[in-house]
Amino acid sequence: MTKLQTAQTATVSPSAQKMLAGFKYFNLPRFIKITPRLINRIRTQFQSGEDPIEQSLIKDGNLTTTTLALNDVTGIRITGASVNEDGPVILNIHGGGFIMGTARERTALLAATETPFPVYSVDYDLAPEAQAPQIVNQVLSFYRGLIETVGNRPIVMMGSSAGSGIAAAVVEQAHAQGLRLPAAMVLFCPALDVSGNGDSSIFNEKRDVGSAKMALRLAKAYIGANDQKSPIVSPMYGEVGDWFPATFMSTGTRDIMLSNVARFSEKLRHADVEVTAVIREGMWHGFNWEPKLPEAVETRQAAWQFIKQHVGETL
Amino acid sequence: MTKLQTAQTATVSPSAQKMLAGFKYFNLPRFIKITPRLINRIRTQFQSGEDPIEQSLIKDGNLTTTTLALNDVTGIRITGASVNEDGPVILNIHGGGFIMGTARERTALLAATETPFPVYSVDYDLAPEAQAPQIVNQVLSFYRGLIETVGNRPIVMMGSSAGSGIAAAVVEQAHAQGLRLPAAMVLFCPALDVSGNGDSSIFNEKRDVGSAKMALRLAKAYIGANDQKSPIVSPMYGEVGDWFPATFMSTGTRDIMLSNVARFSEKLRHADVEVTAVIREGMWHGFNWEPKLPEAVETRQAAWQFIKQHVGETL
């Protein structure tokens, strides 16, 4: 990552300054072939870092996690001590570049800690074992099952990074199939375009914590035989109308996916959809899942506030 | 300006692609001293380019312009053929890096063309002949005069670039003095921090149409003896509360001032002020004043829509 100048450190929190200074830029050199075995190694390494963090979030948040299956798709249900079992629920679609991560990810745990909403988080199959249409259909099945489970309670669909891309694709499919749509969407650092298009995939290469080029190479495992601009993998190119749920999106000025927020905001605005876009100074891809980083805490609070406004629930 | 890659041109309009390809990057080499004489030459050159454009905007928009003085501060009043003389009015504060530009600038003319609102645009003295406190006070006097002139009609304060910085400083002053505040603010590509702080003053250097470093050097003529972070010159550092008017801001991913929008949005949100931030893919500093560029037209429409929502006027 390029060294920060004073003009850049002056405008982020001290915690962010410290994190930015400590980041190890993540890239895979071009000559390394992305094989299932490599992906497996990345997964294991990633998860071994996440496990203790997830465990402490569960402990600190006094959370209860229960595995469940909806329409044969597995997931977990996460609730905090002061859960409201009559109000809205969150359906979380985890991030991890389509190739790693689990339903128990931080964002799901933090949502259950910081809101009264029960969080249902889906454990979709990962790429390359599964590919786009299958994964989108799995999440859609889980969503159908959730509608049946919660009845009239509003459902908020939430995703991070790859999970946000899946979320938007699922909503486009749900609309096409005449399903009841979520009451609101919360899309953190959304991967809405896996074609590589976007100003920020160029200008934030080497400024973010990981490489945009590498993310695109990994996404190929998800895209499979689909066109990179097919809405099933890149919902940026899908048809949206005023039926699309009110949407909250967040990103940071260092995020390789900033342009997705810029572009999708316009697309939704153009379709008369209510949209709130939060672009945080100096923040990187996935910053939203940091438990204590002030910028992340504030961004999540803005998201919970947005949910509150759109489902009429007092937080 | 750095050459654009396909991933970057694919996401902007054909007109924007053409403009981006044709831009001549504007910078002043370090060894050139910024003298009043040089500033005068920049002004003359700038205005000779603007004059024919302004004249054709007046003609095409069938606009009437009348010079006026409010509390001894001069300005112009611009109205279109279908002006509404009972509704809200716009107070425009022109851009031009504090050292150039006039009240007749494009943004004022376009607002009078695209909305039914009469536009009052103030001709504040320019730097280095005048400096920050004097300029802010002039605009404040003009604003006071406008309140007396329009009575109960809502006033929307609008600025571009340097003008947005002045606008925010004026509102902070107006609040401190107990004046009636504008009903809403529209801040295009706002210069809210002349200290140079901000991620985008680094990452968009050489990506925008002009240099951030040069803009800061020119702003010194405006800052004078003030601290660069004094709220009078950098309203980013001012005290804001929920009294601050609902604010629309716009910027682009190439704008050297993008970080101002990111940071000021957070500041306002934190103070419980309603804020809409539009960040347009691939757009540069000041793109909003292009008469026909689709991205600019849409951004202005979003601003007029925001005004409509906050003053209850049908456009």
Automatic annotation (TrEMBL), chains A, B:
This is Hydrolase, alpha beta domain protein. It comes from Furfurilactobacillus rossiae DSM 15814. Keywords: Hydrolase. GO terms for molecular function: triacylglycerol lipase activity. Pfam families: Abhydrolase_3. Belongs to the 'GDXG' lipolytic enzyme family. Residues 90-287 form the Alpha/beta hydrolase fold-3 domain. Gene3D superfamilies: alpha/beta hydrolase (3.40.50.1820).
